[in-house]
Amino acid sequence: MANYTAADIKALREQTGAGMLDVKKALDEADGDQAKATEILRVKGLKGVTKREGRSASNGLVAAQVDGNVGTLVEVNCETDFVAKGEKFVALADRVLAQAVAVEAADAEALLNSELDGKTVKEVLDEANATIGEKIEVRRVARLEGDKVVSYLHKTSPDLPAQIGVLVAVDGGDEQTARDIAMHVAAFSPTVLTREDVDAATVENERRVAEATAKEEGKPEAALPKIIEGRVNGYFKENVLLEQPFAKDPKKTVKKVADEAGTSVSGFARFKVGV
């Protein structure tokens, strides 16, 4: 029997982030030698990178950094929440975020192709993929500039890293209002800033659905235009940030709150892990 203990298994799992069975097999093969077992996990992991390409990476974290009037938001994914809360994965995500800031990446492709310590970020992720034994990827990157940019990170579970991340750019006003709006974005998940940002095809489809629904409900023909307009406006109130009822005061829209604070929202980004 290999010369290792339960404490050795625990230590190697924490060091590599690999699964229990993989760690035990590696320690068996290495006859309990931690360093050799780590190398075995890495080699076998590299062989399995291609096999993991099709697997779902729906766990992970979001991370953000604001420097002056520029904010960067990244989503780094893995397969399980066990890995997501591990020190190795969190440290890797911190490196990825720092790299995104350094190269001013505005999308995942630019970040993955950038060079980090003599390798592309994609290669760095593949190596981590090999060691940890899970598919690891950068799903999204956002870069936001404005007169003032604030970030907000929200944990949906106390034992996991942040699962929702928000950047909000504003012109004028105070930072507290901007931060309140960022928290609102996290909670109410708007999809666009203004109704003009909604795709015309989407608006037309909402009109068709509203008309068909009203007719199905037996609404009078003369009332249809008003009913359709009301339901389309309802769609805008649900999806357009500036038209949403403000989280802290639902009697006011986000735009009203911003106007009263002497600020205007110029942009936002919101990521939720796996969504």
UniProtKB/TrEMBL annotation:
Cross-referenced Gene3D superfamilies: 1.10.286.20, DNA helicase RuvA subunit, C-terminal domain, Elongation factor Ts, dimerisation domain
Molecular function, one GO term: translation elongation factor activity
Domain of life: Bacteria
Main location: cytoplasm
One Pfam family linked to the record: EF_TS
Domain Translation elongation factor EFTs/EF1B dimerisation: 71-274
Annotated region described as Involved in Mg(2+) ion dislocation from EF-Tu, given as residue ranges: 80-83
UniProt-listed PROSITE patterns: EF_TS_1, EF_TS_2
Compartments (UniProt record): Cytoplasm
CDD domains, sorted: UBA_EF-Ts
GO cellular component, one term: cytoplasm
Keywords tagged on the record: Cytoplasm, Elongation factor, Protein biosynthesis
Function: Associates with the EF-Tu.GDP complex and induces the exchange of GDP to GTP. It remains bound to the aminoacyl-tRNA.EF-Tu.GTP complex up to the GTP hydrolysis stage on the ribosome.
HAMAP family attached to this UniProt entry: EF_Ts (MF_00050)
Family in the record: Belongs to the EF-Ts family.
Protein name in the entry: Elongation factor Ts
Organism: Rudaeicoccus suwonensis
Taxonomic lineage: Bacteria, Bacillati, Actinomycetota, Actinomycetes, Micrococcales
